[in-house]
Amino acid sequence: MSARILNGNEIRDQIKSEVSAELKQLQESGIRPGLAVILVGNNPASEIYTRNKVKSCESLGIYSERLILPETTKTEELLIRVEELNRREEIDGILVQLPLPSQVDSKRVLLAVDPQKDVDGFHPVNLGNLLSQRPGLVPCTPAGILEILKRSGIPIEGQRAVVIGRSDIVGKPVALLLMHHNATVTICHSRTRDLPAVCREGDILVAALGKAGMVTAQYVKPGATVIDVGISQLTQLADVERFFSGNAKRMEEFEKKGATLIGDVDPASVMPVAGAITPVPGGVGPLTIAMLMVNTVRAARLRRAAYPAPVPS
Ligand code: NAD
Known about the structure:
Layout: E1 4-5, H1 8-28, E2 34-40, H2 44-60, E3 63-69, H3 75-87, E4 93-96, H4 106-112, H5 124-131, H6 140-151, E5 160-164, H7 171-180, E6 184-188, H8 195-199, E7 204-207, E8 225-228, E9 232-234, H9 237-244, H10 248-257, E10 260-262, H11 267-270, E11 276-277, H12 284-306
This protein binds nicotinamide-adenine-dinucleotide (NAD).
Nicotinamide-adenine-dinucleotide binds at residues 141, 164-167, 169-171, 188-190, 192, 195, 208-211, 229-232, 284-285, 288.
């Protein structure tokens, strides 16, 4: 038996066509949601992520702009830029791409984003809204994971869910969302004792630890749904051979590009045990961008609901 593959690209396309229909409706009311993405410095991965986010907006007809600031940008300068965007009427969403250079106080910058425009859902106000189940903006990757589960017909209510990772942007919010959907949730982290045994209790296992291919069959309950959030690059032939030796496509990709992607899960080991699994690439990743589009449209709606246009005197 081999696990069912949960195809993130297909789910992303479904969501994007729903967003597109909603955008048409908004356009009829004269509203065009707008997203501003701030990129500081020259991190190559961030450069690709931000370009893809803007491209995805353009493909749907969301207004978007990318503000690129030098590696040497100071916290104060960034705060001024964020404030400008907070004030601009045509901007509904502001995304500050992480990680920021080390001289920047990231927490201060994230706190400066107007919570109503915080499409990443990282502001404490939005995290508080999530905790207390109030309407707000939910972090994109955790929201995307829930979409994968729901749209693939994976039951959540009453199930045991185990989340590996307790970060503010993935582990904690996904655990809250699973709990709000009535799963019984365990959060594991780097100090968890006998991690494989705890993970084997999960009907749903979410791996968000950022350790290439660490989750093997011994972590997985037979038939469980495995959601692989991690993204790591393998650049050494020995590593690629360890994970993908029988996989001609991957070996070829590595030969051509000198690198290949892997998640936190060792797919060859886990596939025969799991009931369903998200691949890397093509699993959780595509959903993260799709949910950013959803959040931008949501922010446009929420902001207008909270601040109705002034009645002309
Ligand atoms: P993080 O480094 O902030 O957090 C990692 C968490 O994993 C920590 O809570 C830590 O306690 C735990 N951990 C680390 N090593 C562990 C171990 N050996 N055993 C058990 N727990 C361990 O990372 P993050 O920002 O939450 O991201 C996690 C991974 O997800 C990264 O690979 C990141 O690139 C990826 N990611 C992917 C997407 C996407 O769109 N697919 C989005 C965000 C993050």
